[in-house]
Amino acid sequence: MTQASASNQAPLPGRVWWALTIAVLVAASIGGVAGIAELPLDSHEAFVAQTAQEMHNRGDWLVPYFNQQPRLAKPPVGYWLTALTATAWSRQPWRVEPWHARLPSVLAGVAAVGFTIWMGRELFDRETGLAAGLLMTTSVGYFNYTHSARPEMLYAAGCTAAIACFARSWSLAATASRGTPYTYGMWLAFALATLTKGPHVPAILIAGFLVFLLTQRTAAKTILHVLRPTTGLLLCLAVALPWWWWVYRAVPREALGQSELTGSALRIGWSNLLDPGFVYRAPTLILPWAVFIPPAVALPWRSPRRDSARLLAWTVAVMIVLMSLGSRRHAYYLLPILGPMAVLLGAGAVDLFRTLAASGSPASKRCWGWILALHGVGGLGVIVWLWGFAETNQRPPPAMPLALFLLALAVLAATGVRVWWQAPQPAFHWINSASVIVLVFVGIGYAGEARSSRRYLHANLAQAIPRLVPPEVPLAAWEADASVFVYYAHRPVIECRSPQQIRTALEHTPTHRLALVSPPGRLADLQNQFNVTVLREVIGKEPDEHCIQLLELTPLVPSQAQGTPP
Hey, is 561 helix, strand or coil? Predict the structure, then answer.
């Protein structure tokens, strides 16, 4: 089923490979934790943090609640892990901090890198596994979503573990060895992924595995041996189904029927395939390593391990095609195949450089020189951009990021000199290239200016609400995302979609006062219907969409309602 790997280089010794693997996992950890405590939560992250907070406050760990209402958008694993992190590190009173919500994503990202390294080693060789781990660690997709409390990286880790287990079981089937534990490991990983975000991606991945096995003309007996569909599915259901059953009993059926848990957000249609959104979004997750797509595309036809390459290629292709049937085009939907993409690109890059080295051509040295030069230019560009951003916001340039960028450029310069005078082993190139990117990512993580200013503005206003609005005055939001204000203001928020709903909320308040968060562009509409006092306004350097106001509304008296000046 798999062929022996042809290599023009001596394989990495076991001890060296393990040392380098540990170094990659450490780098993945360092890059992942950079800045997770300093960065304010965005609206989607606030859902996770506040839901874990409300589950703790209610003492109900089975039905997620947000803003005092059942939150049926996602299963509970992300909330459970956030609460577990907060329990381990939170002081009294018990409170979910931003980094509590993000740490599970960091740990899941490190685990996904580990499974990716294992996958690359099992399907190809040690150097490919190492290269794949480095590519994933230094990818834009990894950095962005380990810095997010969303459950995307948790989902990706579960799916990557399942793919790696399937790859191991398949490779053992070629030698008539028992791969059953790995098959059940695959189903267990799918069960945990299902409890993280849902069963849709596990179902797609199983379809990809089946397509691959059928295209390989695998015997039916072997397919059943590798997939164990009956007992494996029973194991998956035994782990995942009890929570769904409990929610079905605890939540009104009409609310559950309209929730995302039932797939209401997935509108399937073949016409959606005409939009190639995922085709060009997939490479954005693996940047800056998309340059290795051409040699990776050639692997299923020319590589000595073409069967291994085809397994990953079919997994990626089926995922992209079936996800394209949906109406949504978010790039993070493809995070579960970030690991397989990293292995394919790593294998393509290793194959390319081995071919160049075997030819005796200096092209290998020049190629790595160009890659390092591009990293250097990118690092300098980020430094200049951050410095200019800080100046436009009248803030001092962040010292730690700039120091890290300078260190990255020093590593780059030393590597360039080494490459110019002597062509070292390929592993040396991978480590040095990755070290530059990791240092740049760490700098970006600690530089708040590298993120949207909108999250800072909203968080600052939300944190001021407890001082500006008495507890007895209700808080509402109109054309503003309420989730951040629910979390940072420590109180429920009435979500209004029209002035009429604002009026209804005001009429039902005993104090006849209502605090409202809204964009400044709506102030004129409100002044025609309410007495309006501006309590706080935050304005960024961006257009109106980055501005937000906190208002106090009281009813107009009859003479004012008829147009008489107050």
Answer: helix
Q: Is the dihedral of CA 282, 288, 293, 296 positive or negative?
A: negative
Residue in the structure block whose two tokens are 């890198």 = 113
Distance CA(268)–CA(270), nearest Å, equals: 7
**For position 391, what pLDDT does the model report?**
45
The pLDDT value recorded for residue 4 is: 38
The low-confidence residues of the chain, meaning pLDDT below 70, are 1-11, 174-177, 179, 253-275, 357-433, 435-436, 443, 447-453, 540-546, 557-566
Contact between residue 332 and residue 152 where contact means Cβ atoms under 8 Å apart: yes
What is the DSSP secondary structure assignment for residue 542, as one 8-state letter?
A: S
Cα→Cα distances 256→56, 246, 260, 496, 538, Å: 22, 12, 8, 22, 38
> What is the C-alpha separation between 519 and 540, in angstroms, rounded?
12
Burial class of residue 422, CB neighbours in 10 A (0-12, 13-18, 19+): exposed
CA 363 and chain centroid, separation: 36
DSSP state of 90: P
Q: Which residues face 531 on adjacent strands?
A: 554
* pLDDT tens track for 516-547: 998 877 788 888 888 888 888 877 655 544 57
Q: Which bin fits 59, alpha (ψ -120 to 50), beta or left (φ > 0)?
A: left
Which pLDDT belongs to residue 545?
46
**Three-class secondary structure assignment of 26-48:** HHHHHHHHCCCCCCCCCHHHHHH
Question: 98 with 39: CB under 8 angstroms?
Answer: yes
pLDDT for 552 equals 86
Residue with tokens 């979503």: 145
The per-residue DSSP string of 277-342 comes to HHHHHHHHHTTTGGGGHHHHHHHHHHSTTHHHHHHHHHHHHHHHHHHTTSS---GGGGGGGHHHHH
Q: Which residues contact 498 (CB under 8 A, 6 or more apart)?
A: none
Helices (H), 447-530: 453-468, 483-489, 499-507, 523-527
**pTM greater than the 0.90 cutoff:** no
d(CA 451, CA 26) in angstroms, rounded, equals: 24
Question: Cα separation of 382 and 412, whole Å?
Answer: 15
Task: Report pLDDT for 16.
Answer: 79
Q: Closest by alpha carbon to 4, among 119, 123, 115, 118?
A: 123
Contacts of 544 (CB under 8 A, 6+ apart): 519, 520, 521
**Cβ contacts of residue 128 below 8 Å, gap of 6+?**
120, 121, 343, 346, 347, 350
One-letter amino acid for residue 488 of the chain = Y
| Model pLDDT, residue 480 | 83
Phi, psi of 130 (to 5 degrees): -65, -45
Contact 240, 188 (CB under 8 A): no
Report the distance separating Cα 77 and Cα 263, nearest Å.
18
| CA atoms of 406 and 420, how far apart (whole Å) | 21
Contact of 324 with 273, CB cutoff 8 Å: yes
